[in-house]
């Protein structure tokens, strides 16, 4: 793959994830703007994760005979228009409707980008690492800059800025020299059932559902918590809460050293869960500075688990790697979608401390579940 094409894919993924997560630090602001509850404001992110969860199952059929470049052009054009509209929206229902349209097209772009990277057989592992790093970087940029732009210029400018970035992305995609079909996986129910009969996949998938439930849930309500502790916290400061998300890039680059330290991948995963659990427990603090610092540790734990779980899921079965990987992403994002809503309800009804206790119970279960079944992963334990 040429450097120019790789740059275009990285840029597209970065902007796409920025669009996806731009609303997260703005949720307290949008909650006031539209006079809606925490739960309703949280749905702006949850709806996209829900469609990302079902996309590996359905998009193989929907995009069966469409050129990847065509998919990227059409989907990016729709995203450009929807972001322009979001900048003018004045009510919650229309805002959520537009975000739902975005939720439908975002998986199509992500799938197309991943398909292009996967076509380069010589550099598959490197390209997948680049893909992960680009998604993390996009999530970081979207969260941090949306908070800054909202404070300095108003929240509507956030979406106009994203539209401008998408327009530039369309120009790049137009020059992309790639006309292949997507050749996506079209899973059958029997194939999915057969994979789930292998308990190792159930362990990995259920573990990641819980981990991302907690991760998405805590980061989704954290802006509300910080505003609760200090109502004078600015949108820029809320956006900066997510700087720790950048740890995902470092983890993806140095994961081999982490594995070498713990000798085996499953041990590193269990250590990651322990770190994730301990950092989650400390979010009980009422010190905003400590909460900011904890996000870094929290993200180190999560991305260690996520990176290694992906590797294991892709290594357990010699065939159907695309399907096992797609199912992993489905469980992962389904956890994120549910985690973006349920903890918001618990937080609104029962308070912050109870929500943290709920997270800790789930993480303790995840750790015990993996620990008690560790012998099933002989090659990794």
UniProtKB/TrEMBL annotation:
Where found, per UniProt? Cell membrane
Q: Which GO terms describe its cellular component?
A: plasma membrane
UniProt entry tagged with the keyword Transit peptide: no
Q: What membrane topology does the UniProt entry give?
A: Multi-pass membrane protein
UniProt keywords, alphabetically: Cell membrane, Membrane, Transmembrane, Transmembrane helix, Transport
UniProt-listed Gene3D superfamilies: MFS general substrate transporter like domains
Q: Which CDD domains match?
A: MFS_NepI_like (cd17324)
Question: Care to name a GO molecular-function term for this sequence?
Answer: transmembrane transporter activity
Q: Which domain of life does the UniProt lineage start with?
A: Bacteria
Residue ranges of the TM segments? 7-24, 44-63, 70-89, 95-118, 130-149, 155-173, 202-222, 242-259, 266-284, 290-308, 329-348, 354-372
Q: Does the keyword Membrane apply?
A: yes
Which residues are in the Major facilitator superfamily (MFS) profile domain? Answer: 1-376
Q: Which family is this protein grouped under? A: Belongs to the major facilitator superfamily.
Protein name per its UniProtKB record? MFS transporter
Q: Which organism is it from?
A: Arcobacter arenosus
């Amino acid at each position: 793959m040429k450097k120019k094409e790789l740059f275009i894919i990285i840029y597209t993924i970065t902007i796409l994830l920025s669009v996806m997560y731009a609303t997260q630090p703005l949720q307290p602001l949008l909650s006031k703007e539209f006079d809606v509850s925490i739960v309703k404001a949280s749905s702006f992110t949850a709806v996209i994760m829900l469609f990302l969860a079902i996309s590996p199952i359905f998009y193989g059929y929907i995009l069966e005979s469409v050129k990847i470049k065509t998919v990227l052009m059409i989907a990016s054009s729709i995203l450009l228009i929807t972001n322009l509209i979001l900048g003018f929206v004045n009510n919650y229902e229309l805002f959520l409707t537009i975000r739902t349209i975005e939720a439908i097209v975002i998986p199509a772009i992500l799938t197309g980008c991943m398909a292009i990277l996967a076509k380069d057989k010589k550099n598959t592992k490197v390209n997948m690492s680049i893909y992960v790093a680009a998604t993390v970087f996009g999530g970081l940029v979207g969260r941090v800059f949306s908070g800054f732009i909202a404070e300095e210029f108003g929240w509507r400018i956030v979406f106009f800025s994203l539209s401008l970035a998408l327009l530039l992305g369309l120009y790049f995609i137009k020059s992309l020299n790639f006309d292949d079909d997507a050749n996506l996986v079209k899973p059958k129910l029997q194939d999915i059932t057969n994979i789930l009969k292998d308990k190792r996949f159930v362990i990995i998938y259920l573990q990641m559902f819980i981990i991302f439930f907690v991760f998405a849930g805590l980061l989704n309500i954290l802006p509300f918590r910080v505003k609760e502790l200090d109502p004078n916290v600015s949108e820029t400061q809320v956006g900066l809460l997510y700087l720790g998300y950048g740890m995902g890039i470092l983890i993806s680059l140095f994961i081999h050293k982490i594995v070498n330290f713990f000798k085996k991948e499953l041990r590193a995963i269990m250590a990651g869960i322990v770190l994730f659990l301990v950092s989650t427990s400390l979010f009980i603090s009422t010190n905003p500075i400590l909460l900011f610092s904890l996000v870094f540790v929290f993200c180190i734990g999560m991305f260690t688990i996520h990176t290694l779980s992906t590797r294991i899921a892709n290594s357990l079965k010699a065939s159907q790697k695309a399907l096992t990987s797609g199912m992993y992403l489905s469980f992962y994002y389904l956890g994120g979608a549910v985690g973006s809503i349920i903890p918001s309800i618990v937080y609104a009804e029962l308070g912050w401390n109870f929500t943290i206790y709920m997270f800790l119970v789930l993480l303790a279960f995840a750790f015990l579940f993996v620990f008690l079944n560790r012998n099933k992963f002989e090659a990794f334990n």
